[in-house]
Amino acid sequence: MDSGMMEPVEFWDFAHYVGHTAEWTCLSNRTSSGGIFKGNSPLGYYLPILVLQISLASLTINVTSIILKPLGQPLMVAQVLGGILLGPSALAYNKTIARALFPLQSFIMLDVIAVLGIMFYFFLIGVCMDPWIVMKIGKKAYVIGITACIFSTIIPWFSFYYVYDSLTDEEFKASVPYLMRTKTIFTFPIIARFLYELNILNSEFGGVALSSSIVGGLLSIFYQLWRSNHNVIGVEGVLQATTFMLVILFIVRPVALWMIKRNKERETVSICSIILAVLVAGLVGHCIGFHIILGPFILGVAIPPGPPLGAALVKRLDVIVSWILMPIFFLKIGLAVNIYVLQWINILNVGFVILVGSFAKFLGAFLAALKCELSWLDALSVGLVLNVKGALELTIVEANRRKLFALEKRTSLIILPFHEKRASTHSTSESSLLGSRTMNLRVLDNAPCSVAILVERGLWNNSMCALANWSPFRVVVLFLGGPDDREALAFGARITGHPKVNLLVIRIVPEHYATFETGEKTKLDNDIINDFRNNKVDNDRVRYIEQKVMDGSGTLRVIQTLQNDFQLIMVGRHHDKSSPTTLGLDEWNEFTELGTIGDIFASADFRSDAMILVVQQHVKVTK
Domain Cation/H(+) antiporter C-terminal: where (predicted)? Predict the structure, then answer.
């Protein structure tokens, strides 16, 4: 699920903390317990453990909120602290308690509840907002928003370069730019929620603050898109997004108004229908390519605020969302936070970057507000309000953590899916395909480890795809030479440890191999082939053959013989263009991310449903 919630980051962190060393986790389908009087432990079943987790999260956040209320802290602070208190930083510090209260098998259910919570949370934020506030944005809001955005974008980068040399942890150094980006973002939905909690959303000050955050937010989004060269959205993607928003604003909103007029005495029917619409909006928006929270938020904006429908929705859903669903979201965040592994030098550096970023945004808003003739107290308040952060920033941080996941965990291999446009079988938009290809190329160029691209040609759609029916699972490694082929051979040798895997290694060599066998690279190829054959000499599930070819056409003939005999074909991405074995093949390379040979395997001319794994060996780049 690409919801931004259930990702390897939290799962890996918590599994590592509690000492879970298994390579896989069996997810039980047991829902409810027979009771302790029958000898069943309730903590071994989904429903009891979920109820316990919701109760713990809600109770902890409620108590934290009561303690912080005299200090005037918003609910968001209590929610974040409550989640941290339940994680390894406090309650789950004891690993026995952590394994009992938060078993790894429960993470999927936690994710479902967390996703529902964040969807309805942003839906309610949208309900509380007046959609016509955009039409009321005045000169003051433009000046304050633009100035604050410029200050928060430029000044923090100077602080980053100031502390850059003092950062000794390369992983941490790579994460600082993502942290700085969160300081440049104006999350006006969170600011709207904050103003709503203070009961000043519809006041004059609230209008100025919210309008300024909208202006700054839009400007920061455009800046981030420009900075990341995000030109892969394409006309089609823009049309999809525009159509989605127009449908909600000009079809769903009139329907909601009609429901209000027709069902004034049947509010339950209207609310139930809109709850269903929230789920549909999240699904449709997610299918288009939005984050799963954007659809519900736009739907909420389309709902008329205030009575009868808007007020009824907030009244009936706010308690459930704030005290049942959202605590699970913050619980999942807290389970990945362990304050005891933090280093003081990193804490100080992060604190410095955050302080400078917050002060820059505050200073820009404060000076602009004074210039717009606001009182110094209102100017001070606007600067502080624009620095409010919340759940949206946490989702952004989680997305950035996923980008750095491979670097943090010393990953050996990243496997990416390959998306090929076939009009007869796929409805994937051209912009989405271009975006996927661009992402794959960027990962290939910048990954801190080896990268493989997996081409799925229909094997998993076969009714006989169950692993038990593959006896054995047949794998072939096509070896032409070079670092990428050596890496593919290494991974092929590794998977032969599985008792149901049969491996065939085909080495393609030029016809006049004796004259071609020169150079250090060829020596490395020979060494790894010899090591492979010596290590697998007693393994009857491994075979090695050599095929001599005159040129690229001979290599093509060898490839055609592999069409129907294997479930997985492994090959390197790059090959020596001067080698006779690839002569003339690179003229027809359509997908550069697959390389010359990988592109042939992925083409329609290769009639096989076997999976293709194109491997690129990591090359350390010294800057």
Answer: 475-618
Angle between helices 234-247 and 267-288 (to 10 degrees): 180
Note the pLDDT tens digit of each residue in 296-353. Answer: 988 888 887 777 777 888 888 888 998 999 999 999 888 888 888 777 777 787 788 7
Angle between helices 267-288 and 309-320 (to 10 degrees): 70
- Full-model pTM: 0.68
What six digits make up the tokens of 469?
Answer: 């029916």
| 474: number of Cβ within 10 Å | 17
Q: Is the per-residue pLDDT at 237 higher than 70?
A: no
H or E element in which residue 479 lies: strand 473-479
Structure tokens at 357: 């970023």
State whether 178 and 201 are in the same domain.
yes
Nearest CA to 7 among 476, 402, 330? 402
Cα–Cα distance between 127 and 270 in angstroms, integer? 14
One domain for residues 296 and 175: yes
Cβ neighbours of 175 (radius 10 Å): 21
Buried b (16+ CB within 10 A) or exposed e, 261-285: eebeeebeebbeebeebbeebbeeb
Q: How far is CA 367 from the centre of its chain?
A: 37
The count of C-alpha atoms lying within 13 angstroms of the C-alpha of 481, restricted to the half-sphere facing its C-beta, is: 26
What is the span of the domain harbouring residue 47?
8-105
Identity at 54, one-letter amino acid code: I
Q: Which residue has the higher pLDDT, 360 or 184?
A: 360
Residue with tokens 């994460």, as numbered in its chain: 175
**Quick check: 331 and 53 in contact, CB under 8 A?**
yes
3-state secondary structure of 3: coil
| Whether 417 and 357 share a structural domain | no
